[in-house]
Specification:
- The complex is a heterodimer of chains A (269) and B (134).
- Chain A is α+β, with helices and mostly antiparallel strands and 269 residues long.
- Chain A is built from two helices and twelve strands.
- The longest helix of chain A has 35 residues.
- In chain A, 26% of the residues are buried.
- Chain B has one domain.
- Chain B contains four helices and no strands.
- The chains are: A alpha+beta (269), B mainly alpha (134).
- At the A-B interface, α2 of A face α1 and α2 of B.
């Protein structure tokens, strides 16, 4: 009887441990990964070229940046656009602030902190740091993070740009995929891997102290799908065949006329 | 009239006929070529000058397409007929069929144009046949 009770107790414990571990794994995944769409390469200049449908194929999300992530309230709403091409991953962050062109935001920055895994242990940071918002002077900075201390990379990787339009600002980041950084100062983006990315915003050029608001998300880098070149226009092809055939006949006929002309001349003489 | 003079006159007349036929071959071929180029512009649908959603413009568009194909056919058959005359052979069935096919395929994109071109070709061939018969 005692033996049977022990067996039941052990089995119950195994079941409980299994369930709790599943719950723990689920908690570690802070959200469902965002999937970047594959699209045409945007120009990283901070300008969204609507006429050429730049960023048109990007996955678009409404996002909020918070002061305190454990009690998220009164967040700054941002538009988060993510996309990929065959070789790079792109992020665009857009938001609007009152008096955005004022000196208060002269040293504004927006950055993405990247973790090698889904857990959020950020080791890489890409920042666009303004030195003068009114004249739109900024710098793209690539840092690596060691024990929450930011160190400038020996070689800057990726690109970034920003542009202010009225009170609305657009930040654009581009980073290569599948290129291993030998110095190990950058996170190596690989296909089908999920990365925890934190979007940060601040108003003074000091990191991480200057970070005022942030939020994080998971992003799963996709395999670039081979987009075959568009097939030749069938109409053009059929037209070429049809009118080409008539054209060849006409050319052949003109050549025959030339030959008969010579023949007639010879006969006359 | 002496025999030599008569022969000379016949020879001169033949040369004049040849000259006329040859000129006709070239002129008709040039016109055929011009109508072929215009036909390409309209029938390949490179040039869409009419709003084909309106019935009237649609009819005009189709008429223009048919007319240019038939004009191509008429001038090419005149040119080929004279060419064959210069070579001393008559225009045979194969030549007419080839020219008819080359004219008809130009109307490939538009079934209405194709139908009317086919009807037009039949009328023209019947006319030419009857003309020759008479």
């Amino acid at each position: 009887m005692k033996r049977q009770t022990n067996k039941i107790l052990i089995l119950t414990m195994i079941i409980l441990i299994t369930f709790s571990s599943i719950t723990l794994i689920q908690n570690a995944r802070c959200s469902t990964p965002l999937i970047p769409t594959i699209g045409s390469t945007p120009v990283i200049d901070g300008v969204i070229d609507l006429q050429n449908d730049e960023w048109g194929s990007a996955s678009k999300y409404d996002f909020n940046l918070y002061q305190n992530l454990s009690s998220p309230e009164n967040g700054l709403p941002i538009d988060l656009w993510i996309m990929q091409d065959q070789t790079s991953f792109f992020i665009s962050i857009q938001f609007e602030l009152d008096q955005h062109g004022s000196s208060e935001y002269d040293e504004e920055f927006v950055g993405i902190l990247i973790s090698k895994d889904e857990l959020g242990d950020y080791s890489d940071a890409r920042l666009i740091q303004f030195s003068n918002m009114s004249t739109e002077e900024f710098q793209y900075l690539d840092y690596y993070i060691n024990n929450s201390v930011f160190f400038l990379d020996d070689v800057s990787n990726g690109e970034g740009a920003a542009a202010l339009d009225g009170n609305k600002i657009a930040y654009e980041f581009g980073t290569p995929i599948e290129i291993d950084d030998e110095s190990a100062q950058d996170v190596w983006f690989q296909h089908k891997f999920t990365y925890n990315i934190s979007i940060v915003f601040g108003k003074s050029a000091s990191y991480p102290e200057g970070i005022l608001i942030e939020n994080n998300t998971l992003i799963e880098i996709q395999f670039p799908i081979y987009i075959p070149p568009p097939p030749p226009n069938p109409k053009l092809l059929i037209n070429t065949i049809i009118f080409g055939a008539v054209g060849i006949f006409f050319i052949y006929y003109v050549i025959s006329i030339r030959k008969i002309k010579d023949k007639v001349k010879r006969l006359r003489s | 009239m002496s025999k030599i003079k008569k022969e000379n006159q016949i020879k001169r007349s033949n040369v004049n006929d040849d000259k006329f036929a040859f000129k006709s071959v070239i002129r008709s071929a040039v016109l055929g070529g011009i109508f072929f180029i215009v036909s390409i512009l309209f029938n390949s649908e490179i040039l869409e000058i009419f709003d084909t959603s309106i019935l009237l413009w649609n009819i005009i568009d189709s008429i223009i397409k048919v007319v240019f194909i038939l004009l191509f056919f008429i001038f090419m058959i005149i040119s080929m007929g004279n060419y064959k005359e210069l070579t001393g052979k008559p225009l045979n069935f194969k030549d007419i069929l080839l020219l008819s096919v080359l004219s008809l395929i130009q109307a490939f994109w538009n079934p209405i144009v194709l139908t009317f071109t086919f009807a037009g070709l039949l009328i023209l061939l019947a006319y030419l046949y009857l003309l020759q018969d008479n």
